[in-house]
Write a structure and sequence with these properties.
The chain has five helices and seven strands; from the N terminus they run E-E-H-H-H-E-E-E-H-E-E-H. It is an alpha/beta fold and about 160 residues long. The strands form two sheets. Strands 3-4-5-6-7 form a five-stranded mixed sheet, sandwiched between helices. A two-stranded antiparallel sheet has the order 1-2.
């Protein structure tokens, strides 16, 4: 955990989820012996941590820091600054098809004009992809590149 403005921020997905979902219901768990899980909270929790994992894997692959970037007007899930310019990534905890990829890439390129850096490339990192969407990398492909292995088995929840 790290301290941020007098708040403890868990650095591991399990503890992060535990403090958000289980800890507030600890009385219910003690009395009833069970806790009802909010599936929407669980999904949003995994989506947020998915972005964190993707940024780590991209940093390892590109050998440069990859961070989220926000301004008052817009934000990007992941940005890497290279000699060629900014590499911009939209991270989707979803299955992305070709039509969705094209729509997201157009939106990403339009948003990228607000960056104070020249844009080298725009990409989508998706949990899965249907078809062969342009400029889209799946989690499995990214893991193979980052870990330098030929095969990765990914189980989705």
């Amino acid at each position: 955990m790290r301290l941020n403005s007098a708040h403890l921020i868990p650095q591991q997905p399990f503890w992060d989820y535990w403090f958000k979902a289980i800890y507030p219901k600890r009385d219910e768990a003690e009395v009833m012996g069970e806790v009802r899980i909010d599936t929407e909270l669980l999904r949003s929790h995994f989506a947020w941590w998915f972005e964190e994992v993707v940024r780590e894997l991209l940093s390892k692959t590109l050998k440069t820091p990859v961070k989220p970037w926000w301004s008052k007007e817009t934000g990007f899930d992941a940005v890497a600054l290279t000699d060629e310019g900014a590499m911009i990534y939209e991270v989707k905890y979803a299955n992305v098809d070709e039509a969705t990829a094209e729509q997201e890439l157009r939106r990403l390129k339009a948003k990228a004009k607000s960056l104070p850096y020249p844009v080298a490339e725009t990409w989508i990192i998706a949990r899965e992809a249907t078809g062969n969407p342009r400029n889209t990398i799946t989690l499995e492909e990214l893991m193979r590149q980052a870990l330098k292995v030929s095969r990765v088995s990914v189980t989705h929840i």
